[in-house]
């Protein structure tokens, strides 16, 4: 019996072992293949810097740097230096009007030749004298000067008796020169004062007469006469005025003092004179803003400019620029400006563009102020000192 029980136990154990083997084999088949772990390589540690040499260590052998000759060394490129433009040398003012005579004679010949033709008539009756008067009035000589000239011509022609062309030419020339005023002082006072203070010249006038251009040309006239000039751009209301004046100055080596656009003109004028004193200039030329003679406020401001500048000392010249082509309207402007500032001289521009040269006589009579400069073209040196004899010579022609 014990044998039977033992056999049964052994059989059960064998069956259990076989069953366990079968289940284990099935499980192995169902499991996925074992994944291989990635191999991570640690980064290399940075190389340790070479230890600094200590006292007592042997010195490393010197490393010889390559030696270059002077020819092999590359030099940095030389910066290009912009060459300054050469200063212009203005034409001398002495005799300048004579050189510009042809321009004046082209526009004014009609006046002189017309008078000579009328005076050369065989019979000088009242109609002829009326034509002579009309010729003078059309040329803007003015009523009173015209009457004076006609009266003197009547008297001298009667005394003369004969009237050859040469005699008439000489007679007319003498009378016109006397009417213009040969002995009038037309000097520009632009020399430095004895105390070292520069002469101060204010340039005034309405818009459109070429005032800033005339100021630039006048600067050239002064430089041509040997003056050291400082320009003051006190026309702060017109954007291009200061630039324009500075360009004129740079061409002849004259310094320009300017202020901010729309700034106080009186302040700029004051600073210009101050700079002129500091630099030892002979002349300070101040270009003021163009004023409409009908605007009271602007004219008052011009008076302020003059008063502020006079804190440095008296103003030596106040030059009124007039457009000769405006004729009698220029006389209206002249009167108003003379009420605000003391005009010392007239600059007549564009005289080559009008046949009304009589404005020279009329404006002098109106203001009691001489014409000191005349403009005869657009060139840089076309502004000339006024010389009565040369002017009349151009009027009458050859």
Automatic annotation (TrEMBL):
The keyword Hydrolase applies. Keywords: Cell membrane, Cytoplasm, GTP-binding, Hydrolase, Membrane, Nucleotide-binding, Receptor. It is an enzyme of class 3 (hydrolase). It catalyses: GTP + H2O = GDP + phosphate + H(+). It comes from the Bacteria. One of its GO terms (biological process) is SRP-dependent cotranslational protein targeting to membrane. Residues 32-60 are annotated as: Disordered. Its EC number is 3.6.5.4. It is a peripheral membrane protein. PROSITE patterns: SRP54. GO terms for molecular function: GTP binding; GTPase activity; signal recognition particle binding. Pfam families: SRP54, SRP54_N. SUPFAM superfamilies: Domain of the SRP/SRP receptor G-proteins, P-loop containing nucleoside triphosphate hydrolases. GO terms for cellular component: cytoplasm; plasma membrane. It is found in: Cell membrane; Cytoplasm. Residues 370-383 form the SRP54-type proteins GTP-binding domain. GTP binds at residues 205-212, 287-291, 349-352. Involved in targeting and insertion of nascent membrane proteins into the cytoplasmic membrane. Acts as a receptor for the complex formed by the signal recognition particle (SRP) and the ribosome-nascent chain (RNC). Part of the signal recognition particle protein translocation system, which is composed of SRP and FtsY. Belongs to the GTP-binding SRP family. FtsY subfamily. NCBIfam families: ftsY. This is Signal recognition particle receptor FtsY. It comes from Kitasatospora indigofera. The lineage of its organism: Bacteria, Bacillati, Actinomycetota, Actinomycetes, Kitasatosporales.
